Amino acid sequence: MRRFLTYRAMLLASVFCFLLHAGIVSAQDLEPRTYSASPIGTNFIGVGYTRLTGDVLTDPSLPITNVQATINASALSYVRSFGVAGHSASLGIALPYVDGNLSGNVIDAPTAINRSGMGDLKLRFGFNLIGSPALTPEEFARRAPTASLGVSLTISAPTGQYMPDRLVNISTNRWSFKPEIGISKPMGNWFLEASAGVYFFTTNDNFYGGSVRSQDPLATVQLHGGYTFRPGLWIAGDVGYVDGGGTTLNGVSKQDRQSNARYGLTCSAPLARGWSAKLALSNGLVTRIGGNYKSITFAVQYRWFDR
Hints:
The protein is mainly beta.
């Protein structure tokens, strides 16, 4: 009986950890305007809330059905823009808090799991190579918008809640690194954006039961198209695709390579001087393994300039 319960928990844990990973590491997040230009000396502080709901597609050979997950994640973030060698750059940090519930039937036996705690710390450095020089707010206001090309590196540090004697954890207990390249093209009030990157993961050497869990690189591509009604007020349609990311446990492949597409809609609106709000909705479009969930995000941001 104990062996059966452990097996059941392992199945649910593999699903649950994927959804936490999707929500917090943001491998499948759709984020427009990431590479849009901003003046140097700009500071952004924001608070966001994301809710993920839905079922998860698992290996059909597994005796698990009716999987439902609800994950609530909030995050505090700060971003600052500055100049490097005559080009604009930015550095951001985000710290999430996660509360998640998962339920499902394993061999017709109902099981439910809940976890809550601090998530892994995220850092992002962005650097615009072409079309986005380092300009002060006054110079930026007078510029003619042009296309820009940028690169970034996102790092996830294993700082979140993790207990090796539990199968289900908030933290992934490993580092991840995502180099990415992106372009942004304004066309009057319209804009187009595209980005491509790859997540690289270190190994979790302290997985449940003393196991070693590793993950292959996960490639990501995003496309965005939108319209700006006036400064700060815009809407965008989003499409994203991820491929790869298969995992192994003690050297044995779990046959869970991802090949998933998502679509979504994002809108941003000014609230008051320096304040803005953003609402984003997304859903699974094509799902091979995991990622078949609905997502809604609401965030409020405050912006100010150096004096």
